[in-house]
Amino acid sequence: MAENLANMAKALIKAAKGAGADAADALVVEGQSVSIDVRAGALEQAERAEGIDLGLRVLIGQRQAIVSFSDANPDLFEGMAERAVAMAREAPEDPYIGLADPDQLAKDYDVDALEMFDPSAAPSPAELQDDAMRCEAAALAVSGISQVSGCGSGYGAQKVHLEMSNGFSGGYRRSSRSTSCVAITGSGTEMERDYAGESRIFQADLPSPEEIGALAAERTIARAGARKPNTGAYPVVYDERISSGLIGHLLGAVNGASVARGSSWLRDKLGEQVLPKGMSIIENPHRVRISGSKPFDGEGLATARRMVVEDGILQGWTLDLASAKKLGMQSTANASRGTSSAPSPSIGNIELTAGSKSRAELLAEMGTGLLITSMIGSSINPTTGDYSRGASGFWVENGEIQYPVNECTVAGNLHEMLAGIEVANDGQSHLSRVVPSILVQGLILAGE
After folding, report:
1. Model confidence over 259-306: pLDDT tens digits?
2. Are residues 113 and 157 both part of a single domain?
3. pLDDT given at position 1
4. Which domain-ending residue is among 175, 197, 221?
5. Residue 7 structural domain
6. Closest to 447 in 3D by CA, of 237, 246, 227, 236
7. Residue 234 forms beta bridges with which residues?
8. How many domains does the chain have?
9. Smallest Cα–Cα separation from 322: which of 268, 257, 405, 369?
């Protein structure tokens, strides 16, 4: 089928050129997924999806248009190409669009070395249901769990092929396997819930359903009796479960599209200190068996390891061809695109330098403050970095967890927050974003 996808993409490019396009690229994505949800020991929902999506982008001078469709009948390709060309002729000019030069294109990459696809047999719906039911049973077996609101198990596989009129032709396959559980303790207004979920490329790497269900229950029991904390200025530890979200605000601010618009709170900080000395953020799109890995980007450029922040100093922006051209720079091979969208910059696998302390030692250093394990809502000013989010977790005194808390808000400014962070050593290496627990000083906590 990979050969079929390549042939479809080549046919789309040929049709676009025949319709009058100066240049074109085509993306063809074929996927399948199965998801099973159980509740109270019985099947609650089963879904299976299969489909193919095709996207064609045509360029006429400095004008472009995109058409996407889900019918792989080759008889339709000529008409879709003609429609795209007609749309492009009416589009406004954009001086920054264009395909990569041939000498920029990825060559001699090794897709298999990244192990993005599990070649073992896909699990059957019955096997997925069994996993979900085992997960639910493990959660319900924990004393204090009143119910499980849902356990699910799923599998997905995808084939991707990108073809360009500049000579690039490449594709790969992905797979994913997941199990999750949401457990509840208490009832009525005293009800609390938490969850656990795991996803891996390879089935063999996924924790057992019993481990996932028991972890969801353990986290839920710990939340029983949650109350609001006191209002004031306190240090805060972002648990490893949610710490990547804090670093995600920095990653969003170094996105070249935002920088080019002038809407990034880091727009004037290139080459300056944004994290403490000794701390780095590394992007590595070639990590094996990791969901964010890829051999080439959405414009056919070879991906590579790079330093986003080194020794606390911001090294560069995350760029595709268009944003790089706007800023007078070179693409960092971070273009991402779908079948119905033009390329745009995005970042994948990253790792924040780990510290030497465990989370427990970080809490001991914090003394009194808040350990956040869950966040809701978001009020982030992308231009100034002003930050406010709803949070729940645990109140800590003398370095020890005292009781669970909820219905509170933490606020600060990302410039100041990130400049003084301290990190633990508990980052999870199987994740695309490996970010340990993070200690932030002096946030404003709004509770009672």
Report:
1. 999 999 999 999 999 999 999 999 999 999 999 999 999 999 999 999
2. yes
3. 47
4. 221
5. 2-221
6. 227
7. 443
8. 2
9. 257
